[in-house]
Design a protein that fits this description.
Length: about 230
């Protein structure tokens, strides 16, 4: 799946146009609306790839794209707040327990708090792609927080493998983007384009993985698991 994910956007009809628009949106993501457009595009990638449609979407119907992206961003934000809150509580508790003078015991407490917070961040990063994939499939904001449906997929080795591959793509893309950012102006733009390309490739993997596993997350009947997938 790695080679398919890398060539997914390249083989589309508007590969250059889509990559440039996506890269510029990431570059100006601090304005939020461009960031919503990026995540709206990711939602479309997930919706298509989860049903084995490997034709990359374009940046069209920008209103719907923005709305879908805002919802996907809200899901990401909600999951990211969990480790932030956990870290604040843990570090705050150690600080209060030691009276502001940590010492050796406090240092150990801070270390343990850091490890738990890091694990929570990894957990949130593991869950959030599946949450957005479920939202992309069902077009309901609540689908991103459907614990029962997500749990069945998250517990599989197939999802873990797909997530690790997607994570690796993002890491490599971020590294290349960082190197390009060292070149003023042109390098910054190219770095943003590479980062967008890597994000799309990563969610191509997530989309196909979700499409393969989604049936197991549906409620079972007396006849066994349903093989139907909800309409996109």
């Amino acid at each position: 799946m790695l080679s398919e994910s890398v060539t997914y956007l390249k083989d589309s009809d508007d590969a250059l146009k889509t990559s440039i628009i996506g890269g510029l949106c990431l570059l100006f993501g601090f304005l939020l609306i461009p960031l919503f457009l990026v995540w709206g595009y990711v939602v479309r990638v997930l919706a298509r790839t989860s049903r084995d449609d490997d034709e990359a979407p374009g940046f069209e119907d920008w209103g719907d794209l923005t709305i879908d992206g805002a919802k996907a961003f809200a899901i990401l934000l909600a999951y990211s707040l969990v480790p932030v809150a956990a870290g604040a509580v843990l570090f705050g508790s150690v600080w209060l327990a030691t009276g502001g003078t940590p010492g050796t015991i406090g240092a150990i407490g801070f270390f343990l708090a850091g490890m738990v917070t890091l694990a929570t961040f990894v957990g949130a990063a593991y869950v959030s792609p599946a949450a957005i994939a479920n939202f992309a499939s069902e077009r309901r904001l609540g689908a991103g927080f459907d614990v029962d449906e997500l749990r069945a997929v998250l517990a599989t080795g197939t999802y873990a493998t797909g997530w690790l591959l997607a994570f690796g793509i993002v890491v490599v893309g971020s590294f290349v983007s960082g190197v390009l950012n060292a070149v003023p102006l042109v390098g910054t733009v190219l770095g943003a384009i590479v980062a967008f390309y890597a994000l799309v490739a990563a969610y191509y993997v997530i989309g196909h993985t979700w499409g393969d596993l989604h049936p197991v997350s549906l409620e079972t009947s007396d006849d066994g698991p349903s093989s139907e997938r909800p309409a996109v």
